[in-house]
Amino acid sequence: MAGILASSRATPSSTALTPPPPPSRRQTPHMRQTLRQLPSKSDDEASRPHKHRKKPLGGHKKHSHHEGARRRWREEITARERKRYEGVWASNRGLFLNSSSPDDARTSELVANVVVRDIWARSRLPVDELAEVWDLVDHQHNGALDKADFVVGMWLIDQRLRGRKLPQKVGDSVWESATGVKVPGPRGRKKK
After folding, report:
1. Rounded to whole angstroms, how far apart are CA atoms 68 and 157?
2. Which own/partner contact pairs does 78-85 have at CB distance under 8 Å and 24+ positions apart?
3. How far apart are CA 162 and CA 140, in angstroms?
4. By the 8 A CB rule, do 91 and 189 touch?
5. How many Å apart are CA 13 and CA 60, to the nearest integer?
6. pLDDT string in tens for the chain (192-residue length)
7. Beta bridge partners of 144
8. Which residue ranges make up each domain of the chain?
9. Which SMART domains match (predicted)?
10. b/e sequence 78-115, b meaning 16+ C-beta within 10 Å
11. At 112, is the secondary structure helix, strand, or coil?
C-alpha cells in the first residue's frame, strides 16, 4: 500500500513536459497604456464658453493680478446647500424631545443638542470649534436648534472644513439665506 502511494507522489522525470517559456517582451516605441482614459472632446465641452479667460498681463496696468477672477468667500447659503442641510434637519427633528402636550408643534420642529452633537461630531472638527459654532447659532438657549439655526450651523461647519475661519458673529445675509426668504431692510423716507 505504501509503495502505491509513494509511486503516485513521485514525479516522473521522463514524462514531464517543461512549461512553455514566457512570451518575450517587445520594446514599444511609446509608453504603456494606463487605466486613465484620454481626454475626449464632446460636443458639450466644445460649445460651452470658458468662464475665466485670462487677459494678458502688462500694458495698461502696472500691477495687474486678476483680482476679479479669484473666487471669494460667499456670505450666503446657496439653495442647493440649504436643501441638503434641511434634509438632514428633517430626518433628525423631534428626536429625544419630550413635548408637554401632544399638539405642541414647536417641539417637533427642533433638533435636540445631543442629536446635533452627534451629527456635527462626524465632521471631526475639534470639540471647542463645534462649541463655538453652537454658541453662534443657539439663540433660544433651550438645548435645541430650530431649522434656521441648524442650517446655519451646518453651513458654518462646511465653511470651516473648507478652510475658512469661524466669524465672530453670523451676518444677516447668512440668516436670510438660511430661511430662503430675503427681507428688504427699512428704507429711508423720501423728502418731498
Report:
1. 27
2. 78/177, 79/180, 81/155, 81/158, 82/151, 82/177, 82/178, 82/180, 85/150, 85/151, 85/154, 85/155
3. 28
4. no
5. 87
6. 666 666 556 665 555 678 888 777 666 666 666 666 666 655 455 555 656 556 555 556 665 555 555 555 568 889 899 999 999 988 887 665 565 555 455 667 788 888 889 999 999 999 999 999 999 999 888 888 888 999 999 999 999 999 999 999 998 889 898 887 655 555 655 554
7. 112
8. 79-179
9. EH
10. eeebbebbbeebeebbeeebeeeeeeeeebeebbbeeb
11. strand
Show the cell assigned to 56: 494678458
Q: What is the CATH number of domain 79-179?
A: 1.10.238.10
Cα within 13 Å of Cα(61), Cβ side: 8
Phi first, then psi, for residue 144 (nearest 5°) are -150, 160
Dig out the grid coordinates for 172 from the structure: 444677516
Nine-digit cell string for 27: 520594446
Grid cell 420642529 in the structure block, residue: 109
User: In whole angstroms, what is the distance from residue 34 CA to residue 32 CA?
Assistant: 6
